[in-house]
Every structure is written in C-alpha cells, then in structure tokens.
C-alpha cells in the first residue's frame, strides 16, 4: 500500500487508522451483517453509532449540557443562510467580521436576510491579518457577531476568542470553525453557535456539525424552510430526515482516534510543532514568502509563494514526484498552500519541509 502525503484544503486527509478500521468494518459492521451505509438511520445499530459520535464529541470539546449538537447536510455553506434565519430572532441586523473569502461568502448570504454591519475588516491589507478586537465597531442592536476563526484560503487564524462583552454588548458569538474545529482546545460556553463542515478536520464531505446554545433556537424567520430550522433538527436528534449516516460514522471513528491521541490539548501541541516546521523555514529563507501577519498565521493552512513564480510549476512537479500533493494555492491567492490538519502526520510535514529546503538550495 502506497499512501501519499495529501495537503489538500478539503476534502482532506483522514487518519490512516480510521480508514483501515472503516475498511475492516465495511461489509459487516460489528456482526450486523451490513455496512453502515446500508443501515436504517432509525435502527438500533445506527442509533448507537450516532449516540456514541455525539457523546465523544461532547467529551472531546467539553460541550455544556445547554448546547445542542446537530449533524446536518448542506455543508458549511448552508449555515451561511441558516445562521441569520434562526438567530436574528426579531432583530434586523447582524455584525460580521470580514477576514477573507469565507467570511465574505457568509456576509453575502446574510445580506439576503438582514442588514450586515461589517464590525471589522482586513481588506485594507488584502486579508492578511486578524483585526484586533479593540478596533471592532459593533452595532449594538444587532442579533449576533459572526467571525471566521480560521480563513482556509488566506491562512489567517485568530489565536484568540473574541468577547462581545468586552465590546460592551451582550450578544451571541457565532463562529464558522470549518477549518480549525478540534485542532486546539475550545471553550464552547463563549460561543452562541459554532458550525464546521466536516471535510476539513473531522471526516468526509456531506456533514456539517452545528453546536448551538439551546435558548437561541426556536424563533426562525417567517418562511424558513423546515430543513433550515435548527429547532426541528434539535427536537429530532438530527433524525428529522435521513442524516448523512456514513460521514457521521467516519467522523465518529475520527473522534475515537482523537481521544486515543490524547484529545485536543495533545492535538494542539502536535499542530503547533507541525506549523512551526513550515513557518520557521519560510522565515529563514527569502526564497519563499508568507503573506500573513506573523501573529495571525494559521496552524492549519499555510499559504506561501515562491519569490520567483516562474518556478511554481517545477515546484509542484517535483513535490508530486516525492509523494507530496495538492500544494497548489487557491486560485484567488496563487502560489502554494499546505493544509496540515489534525490527520496530517508530523512525518508528512517534515517531508515537505525537507523538500522545500532542498528545492530552495537548488534553485536559489
Ligand atoms: C470549506 C469551508 C466552507 C465551505 O464548506 P462547504 O462544506 O463546502 O459548504 C466554509 N467556511 C470555511 C471556513 C471553509 O473552510
């Protein structure tokens, strides 16, 4: 078996142990004689998988009892609409922090449902930093504050959690945590709602995990489709309709893997070490450049450019020959991007750093 190192931003690498276990259980899950894909979502086998997945997530992320955990389809992109539809609760505006491609998409969608106050933006520097909280200009009558803790495309990560109370307002904080969820410890109680598409750091595409404080749901905007109402999903334990059962099962295996690895504190240590390998290299040669402000650099997505872009093709070709793939940067940024989520082993990042150093030495 030949596994390559896959630096894709998403769908992304999964732990090999998880894939092996899924393979072993593919045809016959725990003596049921069925694949998880073939099970009724309301049968006792799948109900036990769903319950364990939720319990493990609650344990790992320390989710308080007054929060609901929802397993939804529609990706993180559906949440761009579901958040305003459910959290406006009679208000007519919402605060958004604009730090890159994903927050802009969230803002564009929210504008269909309410007035959006851009509380802060890093557009002045091409979205290469996270605006300090004391610069945010909050609309105090708005329903919530939305931000993107990790901008997957730009590689900008907030190393801190905003606090609306420190801005003098009492409103829920909403986070699109798609590309940094479970990469570091998390204090759920500081958020009103967290959502994360699974295909970056948790599992396969097709599943979006939503963690929402109970008191915030149940007052959707008039005309909200049934499938877009959090309360409907919460009241039926995400079984109002058929949930994405196989992605839930694989995500459950990833959560077990995370627990075996020592949980989120242990994961954070490894993620810090992995990111440092790349950023240290980027900072010690002028062959490569990282556009992101030092203190706001993402531990999950590392964008960089070659000083001489005419070497881009050659870089990608040689990397691929070494089994290092999916390093081409997003079309909106150019250059390269290495996504190094939880499931990317330290060895993969080492191999990339070694290759980058050799390539720089050869072509300097
Ligand atoms: C990938 C991503 C999305 C979109 O996710 P889909 O599941 O494709 O809808 C949204 N926000 C962030 C931060 C992402 O990384």
Q: Structural class per helix/strand content?
A: alpha/beta
Named CATH topology of the largest domain: Aspartate Aminotransferase, domain 2
Q: From the alpha carbons, calculate the radius of gyration and give it in angstroms.
A: 21 Å
In CATH, the homologous superfamily of the largest domain goes by the name: Type I PLP-dependent aspartate aminotransferase-like (Major domain)
Strand content: 15-25%
Q: Count the E strands.
A: 14
Kindly state the percentage of residues in helix: 25-40%
- Biggest β-sheet description: 7 strands, mixed
Write out the distinct hetero groups bound to the structure. Answer: pyridoxal-5'-phosphate
The parts where pLDDT drops under 50 for at least 5 residues are none
Strand arrangement, major sheet: 2-10-9-8-5-3-4
Query: What is the end-to-end distance?
Result: 36 Å
Highest-level CATH class of the largest domain: Alpha Beta
Query: Per CATH, which architecture of the largest domain?
Result: 3-Layer(aba) Sandwich
């Amino acid at each position: 078996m030949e596994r390559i190192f896959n630096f894709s931003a998403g769908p992304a690498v999964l732990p090999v142990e998880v894939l092996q276990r899924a393979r072993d259980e593919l045809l016959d899950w725990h003596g049921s004689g069925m694949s998880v894909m073939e099970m009724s979502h309301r049968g006792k086998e799948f109900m036990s998988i769903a319950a364990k997945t939720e319990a493990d997530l609650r344990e790992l992320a320390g989710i308080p009892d007054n929060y609901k955990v929802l397993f939804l389809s529609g990706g993180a992109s559906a949440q761009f609409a579901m958040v305003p539809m459910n959290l406006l609760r009679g208000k007519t505006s919402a605060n958004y922090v604009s730090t890159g491609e994903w927050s802009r998409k969230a803002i564009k969608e929210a504008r269909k449902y309410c007035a959006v106050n851009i509380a802060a933006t890093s557009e002045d520097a091409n979205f290469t930093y996270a605006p300090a909280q004391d610069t945010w200009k909050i609309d105090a009558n708005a329903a919530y504050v939305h931000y993107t803790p990790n901008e997957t495309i730009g590689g900008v990560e907030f190393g801190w959690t905003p606090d609306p109370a420190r801005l003098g307002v009492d409103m829920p904080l909403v986070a699109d945590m798609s590309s940094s969820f479970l990469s570091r410890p998390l204090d759920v109680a500081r958020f009103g709602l967290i959502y994360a598409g699974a295909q970056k750091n948790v599992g396969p595409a097709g599943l979006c995990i939503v963690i929402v404080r109970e008191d915030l749901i149940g007052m959707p905007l008039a005309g909200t489709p049934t499938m877009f109402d959090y309360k409907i999903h919460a009241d039926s334990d995400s079984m109002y309709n058929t949930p994405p059962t196989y992605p839930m099962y694989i995500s459950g295996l990833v959560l077990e893997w995370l627990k075996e690895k020592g949980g989120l504190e242990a994961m954070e240590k490894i993620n810090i070490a992995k990111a440092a390998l790349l950023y240290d290299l980027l900072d010690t040669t002028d062959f490569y450049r990282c556009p992101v402000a030092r203190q706001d650099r993402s531990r999950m997505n590392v964008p960089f450019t070659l000083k001489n872009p005419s070497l881009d093709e050659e870089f990608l070709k040689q990397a691929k020959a070494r089994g290092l793939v999916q390093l081409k940067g997003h079309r909106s940024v150019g250059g390269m991007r290495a996504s190094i989520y939880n499931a990317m082993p330290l060895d993969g990042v080492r191999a990339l750093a070694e290759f980058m150093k050799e390539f720089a030495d050869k072509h300097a």
